[in-house]
Amino acid sequence: MNRGFKLKPLIVLVVLSSLTMACEMKQNLDEMHDATVTMADTTERMEKKTGELDKKSADLDAKTAELYDALRQGNAAILRKEFLESMSDSQEMPKKLGLAVKYFWSFEFQLWSNQGLDGIERREELAGSAAREFIREIHEYASHNDFISPTSSDNKDKNFLALATTLHEVNDKQKNRLEKSEHKLMSMLSLIERALAEGKALKEGAITIDQMAVASRDLLVFEDKLIQILQARHNFILAMLVAKASHVDQDLKAKVLLGLFGTKWSLDLSQYNDIEVAEMKKYLKAVKDTRALLTRYGYKIEADKTIVKIMGNGQVIKSLVKQDSRQKTETDLIEMIEAVRADSVELK
Length: 348
What we know:
Radius of gyration: 37 Å
Number of helices: 12
Number of domains: 2
Signal peptide: 1-22
Mean pLDDT: 85
Order of helices and strands: HHHHHHHHHEHEHEHE
Oligomer: single chain
Keywords: Signal
Shape: globular
Protein name: Lipoprotein
Organism: Bdellovibrio reynosensis
Number of strands: 4
């Protein structure tokens, strides 16, 4: 009995202790719950702030891209205007050609980055804008569609010839940016080639106007002007080759003898280094490619009669260099000269 009485206080203490521990555990659980709720609220606020930050960052990126696009457009337009003005003020053809190259390099499609706002659609928009500007700008130098002689001394004719000759130029930035991409390089010449191809497809019913590139539609509004440009291009490139090979540009007497009387002359390749011979080959390729472009779409090749006469009276003498690569280049050059001479042309 006494033993039972003694155990009661102990049991009471155990119960009280258990109740106290239970209360403490409940309090701890409540505190953990409150902390979890608070953390959840904090996390939610952080996510909201992060979302707002991401949105602000995205907005900033969009604004930066838009600013870059606007600055590029404005600066490029100013540069093109300055290049054309300087080209018109220049008297020497080499300087005109150099400024014409810079003019084509400064079109925005040449500076397309494939980043930010510069998606594929934007590239086509820039190409269309360039085509529209170029084809209207070049009317300043030839309001007619008549044949322009590569030997003309008229300043406007020389400006026209400079632009026609450098159509193929591609800015180094475009080359570097697209070097490892699937996108093809774009030039004013490639836009003209595409326009003529799509024009033919349109005539044949293979495509509709809506399926044509914007640049093609803008260029084909002045198709006769495109053909005039291509005729001027192959004639002046050939004239540059003939001038270099025959030295007709360095001597007035040579001009008279070669041009008027058709005096025979020789192109001695031993007088030219590897780079110069390769450059001649490049000229001839450009002539052949441009003529092929004209005939592919049903146009006659118009050629300056004086340049054709001089070209026909030239004799090519191979060098004695035994290096295989040099011999191959010379052989290719001679074959290309013969192919140009064999072309069916309409003399002007």
